Amino acid sequence: MALTSQITLYDDRWPSLFDAEKIRLLKPFLPNVVEIEHVGSTAVPGLAAEPEIDLVVVSDPQDEARVDQEMALLGYSRVDAMLSFMTEDVRWWVNGDQRYSRF
Question: Which residues have CB under 8 Å from 55's CB, separation 6+?
Fold first, then answer.
C-alpha cells in the first residue's frame, strides 16, 4: 500500500496491519511506551479511506537519537517539518506505506 490520496473501500485487513506494525514499533520505544493506537480513517470499521495506516505512539521522554536509529532500521524516516506548527513534543516518521507520530 504505497502512500496515495486515493480513497478506497474499507479493507478488513487494516486492523491486522495495524496490529503487526504495533508489535514492530514496541522495540524502539521500550521501556517508555505508554500506548500505541490506530487512528485516522482506517481505524473506523466500514469507512472508506486512504489506505495508509496512521498510528500514534504515546511515550515518556527517552533517548531520541536511539529511537531515530531504531526507527530507521524499521524503514522509517523522520519528517518533523510536516508538523512544524505543532508543539516541540511531536515527532513524525513516514514509512512508505505507513505514517506514524509520537506525542
Answer: 18, 21, 22, 25, 36, 37, 38, 39, 98, 99, 100, 101
